[in-house]
Amino acid sequence: MTATPAIEGWFTVGDAPTLLGERCTGCATTYFPPTAAAAGFCRNPGCDSETFEQVPLSRRGTVWSYTDAQYQPPPPYQAPEPFVPFALAAVELPEGMVVVGQVAQGYGTGDLRVGQEVELVVEPEHASEQLIYRWKPVVELGEEADQ
Fold first, then answer.
1. Residue 131: which of 122, 140, 139 has the closest Cα?
2. Which segments in the chain show pLDDT lower than 70?
3. Where are the coiled-coil regions (predicted)?
């Protein structure tokens, strides 16, 4: 069985995955997740356009904020048994938006700091063969030796 994205159309897979945003062709406002086309209108209140194009978003951004989930989220979230806490990061992309996502496997809040560079990775969701996007801290050469 081949792993597939948990939500089709939100991100690409492969060696250099990207989030897929949606840009209004009328005002050039970019959105994530891509839902404006399905709604039929631009979310910018000053725009009346109804046409959009899919655009890849930057693979890297900076940590704007972060936290951890120390409790098991309620259904429909499918947590592993026993529940394992995980970190979440709000990442500011160069496109001027903040995207929230889980932090990559093997990383937690102790590995994050505000302003730190992170990159998008795609990993299997713990409870299925489906893939989800996550944020992985970027480690520069020589940085590991300093820690």
1. 122
2. 1-2, 37, 127, 140-147
3. none
Torsion over CA: 6, 75, 34, 17 (sign)? negative
At which residue do the structure tokens 């801290």 appear? 137
* Tokens found for residue 120: 């998008």
Residues 6+ apart with CB under 8 A from 76: none
**56-79 b/e (C-beta count within 10 Å ≥ 16 → b):** ebbeebbbeebeeeeeeeeeeeeb
pTM attached to this predicted model:
0.86
Domain boundaries, the chain: 20-56, 60-139
User: In the beta sheet, which residues pair with residue 129?
Assistant: none
β-pair partners for 134: 102, 121
AA identity, residue 25: T
CATH class of 60-139: mainly beta
- Cα 79 to Cα 40, 84, 108, 124: the distances in Å are 34, 8, 17, 13
- Report the C-alpha dihedral over residues 144, 105, 102, 32, rounded to 10 degrees: 90
